[in-house]
User: What shape does this take?
Amino acid sequence: MFYTGCGIVAIAITSSYKGIIRYTGLQDGVRIITMVFLNAVLVSIGNLIFFYNGQGNMVPYSVIVISFLSASLILFNYRLLVKYIFSFYRNAIFKKQRVLIFGAGQTGIVTRHVIDSSPRTQTVGFLENDRNKIGKVLDGAKIYDASFKELEFLIKELSADEIIITIKDLALDVKNELVDICIRNQVKVRMIPPVEKWVRGELSINQIKEVNIEDLLGRESIKLDNPSVQHELQGKKVLITGAAGSIGSELVRQVIRFNPELLILIDQAESDLYEIEREIRQAESWTKIVLYLADITNKDRVEAIFRAHTPDTVFHAAAYKHVPMMESNPVEAVLCNILGTKLLADLSVQYGVRKFVMISTDKAVNPTNVMGCSKRIAEIYVQSLNNHVSSTGGKTSFVTTRFGNVLGSNGSVIPLFKKQIQVGGPVTVTHPEVTRYFMTIPEACQLVLEAGTMGKGGEIFIFDMGSAIKISDLAKKMIYLSGFEPHKDIEIVYTGLREGEKLYEELLNNFEDTLPTHHKKIMIAKVKEHAYDEVNRYVDLFHDLVYDANELKMVALMKELVPEYKSNYSRYEILDQRN
Assistant: This one.
């Protein structure tokens, strides 16, 4: 009775009874040993009390030692036995997903414990490229060769249903090859988030995310010359147009890190401007932020902003960019992309802006649509104005950046495909052979900042975009990554090229070449230069045409200034036939 009473007290103190048996782990073992040890201590204290009162020992010390060892062993093994029986019973009921973990490091071990704690998944092995680890056993699971020659056979041999990538900086070409193998073998691919994004520092099964197409299309980030960018922006007054858009908002995020004195944000999208304001107000920066809800074609409004703040640097990201929409509304393309750019550029000269960086597009090269041609005319005007200003002793330098589609931007094809897949399809692609270049939004904005730093004036910077991607292949991969099969679960429908679209994009036209820069991924396009007086005369003519109902006349003027502009799948093809 005395021994039992001490045991009850020890159990109550340590709360060893509260552990859920089927989840028994190391902490439960420690709690059991603590409880048994405390019980032995209490019995020993009772023995001493009785002994000094002349009544001898209540319990022999040999019994206390034997009880401590046997109770520790039996209680802990009992819990492990119950846990094993429960696990065996659970496995018999549920069919488990067999998982291979790519990466046999510390993060891989954590992932293995998370996987095996789920009733529906089990780890069947690790994948590793490190030859020193291959063939060994880690935490009870074998480490296999992750080379792609072996992987396809290994997936079949182990009947793997899923591969989870745990390596943080896995090379993009390796990641793409891995995903392609998994798609061919109908194996699911997931990734764990970076450690810093784990909830309360712990990984859970719900945090393991699907591989997104964005994870496969990006490239190694540009390494910025941060001291130069810092010198260019720190303590300066920076104006960003289109600051609430995809590119503009990312520019805001990156520029504010360099602590400019003043950040002036202009956009006509009220809700989006409000959202970016809320975000950057939380950034730890002493930069003063001023927001203007304004249209860049409103001369009085924009001039008032320049007069009030006299910015040092202007990043011009505001533009209309949707090809079919501008093909139907050429007046708006001319107003915003051409006349809006001219207004900002002229005001930059008038108010002594030191650097004007314009964001252009690959659609300005050999344009086949109104939008692309309007951006090419904006490029021509900015470049000719730079030459004019430099020849007359002005201090404003104008540079242009030209790049392809950005992943996840408003209206881009990837968000559209995601929505179509979510509702069960069909996924619409314009043409089986259409190709596009892609880059991430942060990459694009890093290019813009680098151009703003290295540009001396008059350059058009282009970016090494890598290889063009076939949009039909992109659609198929997105469907596979979403857990479906193209043409079986989700249809792909070809709708035909839209007005002004072409099958492929170009970064240079037939008469352009490139010059290298200090960065291997950034080049300068050698383009035909135009006399400022001639270009300005053309652009002034657009002022007279924007309110004219004759759209053909306006587009004809665009073709006259940009002779390589040949309309495609457009009602303006009639103008090319006349020429």
About this structure: Residues 2-93 form one domain. The chain has three domains: 2-93, 97-211, 231-405+438-465+506-578.
